[in-house]
Amino acid sequence: MLILTSNLGRTATAGKIVLLMLTLVMLVGLEPSFAQTNTKSNLNHALELSKPLTIAWRYNSNLTLNLTPAFDKERVYLPLAGGTIVSLKAADGKLNWRSEMGGELSASPTADDRAVYVASETGKPETGARRATGALRALGREGGVTQWMRTLAMPLRGSLTLTNGNLFAGSDDGKIYALDSKNGELIWTYDYGAPFKGQPVVSNGRVYIGSDDGNLLALDESSGKLLWRYKTKGPVLGPVAIGRETIYFGSGDAYVYAVNVPTGRLIWRKRTGAGVQSVVSAAEELLVSSLDNFVYKFSSAGARVWKRQLPGRISAQPLVAGDGALFTPRSSAIGVVLEIRDGRQVNSLPVGEEITTSASAIAVGDTVFLTSEHGLLAFRQPREGQPLKKE
């Protein structure tokens, strides 16, 4: 029960607050079954993948990698071979800056409104030598100048995750790192022992990350303390999907798993035809990409709703937007958009060459970006009065 003071102004204000809260409850209703795992979700409500999308511009390069570009509200940061990253305007592809760090980039970068965060490696040390081979840098958003750098014993792998002002990543040395994005200061490390090549996901005070030896780990976000781990029989490479009380993830053992958030105990598991590369939430259900060339849709309770075969292995995370999901099967020359409801193909994005990279598609506003062997392609819905571009 809300107790109001006798002050009339405060009473009126409190009354308005109560009415506003009631209105919000009526409009919003119950919370969704799947929570957003971080601020840069693969769910993009401003984009309609089922509508015609044509190439708006392209950035040509023969140095693209199997790393997903980073992005903010206006820019895309494309990682390239030779320790290079370029900043491009999302609207037209014009170059903002180019930064060359040397060595090679080792993990997919991430960005915010201040900087882009980049992990690199400098090669293996000579026999008997003990020197750091990994590094993490913050490059200024405007000029690409290094704001801070932290050396690491071994390179970070998979993808960097930026949440609540902190950076999270796994490493070749079997450690998980949490660092302050403002200055690179170490917050905590957890020494697990087996290498990591996955993408950490942070949700409700916990960090979830899969290991090469088949475990999913849950750690406390503030301290790095291990809360639980769940063992599978294959490497866990993709990020998890988060439900109300359930974590969903895939393994190289060809299974999709659902485990309890507080305890890490198994709720259910379902088999696919090959190693599972990604599990993402969509329309309160699950889209599962398998190396058997199929996309599966499961309900949150583990019932298979449909499966669809694509023209190649699916090793990249799909881009989910509205009622569609974009997949980039390797060995094909198109990105394929499936309708989430029934799995039928509703669109395709011609790349113009065979897809050989496992870099995931991303979106900035109404523009979709696909990495190819020879550059970055930007797809956008044709403007009013603009003819469709034929490839």
Give structural notes:
This protein is mostly beta strands. It has one domain (35-125, 132-380): YVTN repeat-like/Quinoprotein amine dehydrogenase (Methylamine Dehydrogenase, Chain H). Helices cover 5% and strands 45% of the residues. The protein is built from one helix and 33 strands. The chain has one helix at 8-28; strands at 54-60, 70-71, 75-80, 84-89, 95-100, 104-105, 110-111, 115-121, 134-140, 146-152, 156-163, 166-171, 175-180, 186-191, 201-203, 206-210, 215-220, 226-231, 241-242, 246-250, 255-260, 266-271, 276-282, 285-290, 294-298, 304-309, 319-321, 324-327, 334-339, 345-350, 362-364, 367-372, 375-380. The strands form eight sheets. Strands 6, 7, 8, 9 and 10 form a five-stranded antiparallel sheet that branches. It has a four-stranded antiparallel sheet with strand order 1-33-32-31, with no helix packed on it. Strand 2 and strand 3 form a beta hairpin. The radius of gyration is 22 Å and the shape is globular. The termini are far apart.
